[in-house]
Amino acid sequence: MKVTHIVAALTIIGIIAGGSLSLVNNWAAPKIAANQKAETERAIYLVHLDGKRYEEIKNSGFEVYKVFNQADSSVGYSLVYSGNGFQGKIKLMIGLAEDLNKITSIEVLEQSETPGLGTKILEPPYKDQYKGLVPAPTIKLIKGVEPSNPNEVKAITGATISSRSVVAIVNEGVGKLKELENKGALK
What we know:
Number of helices: 3
Largest sheet: 5 strands, antiparallel
Strand content: 15-25%
Number of strands: 7
Strand order of the largest sheet: 1-2-3-4-5
Radius of gyration: 22 Å
Order of helices and strands: HEEEEEHEEH
Helix content: 25-40%
């Protein structure tokens, strides 16, 4: 077989494979975007159980939403923030009260932590520690003892890096939101 035949065959295979991937991407991309939007909206209302509608705050540099209750009064903010975990990116939805001085709840949107250890960040015993947590001056991660201050979270045994990552993501996200508030960009 001549080299030109091999090159021609590989070129045709490449064109067919590339075209197929492009078609599949064009078909799947809108569905993926719609599913991500639905997941984000679901998480907004999970971190603000009394939320009925939301407005996106534009030009913030990250995803942040102002959430309103049935009476159309603001109940706080929901922000999407991410950072590095033990094995990959962790993406969170963080709910904050209107004055930014209390976390209402967190939800994990994406993670690739170690199954059975790092994935405990998805479980209520860990996530529920954030309900009512005071993020001032910052959230602290403690090990081996029960939290005694309103800004402390207990680390997951065997998954300290994942626990530390979630705390770092929440602290950074809350810090960025407070910067926006200081600039008057949350109104």
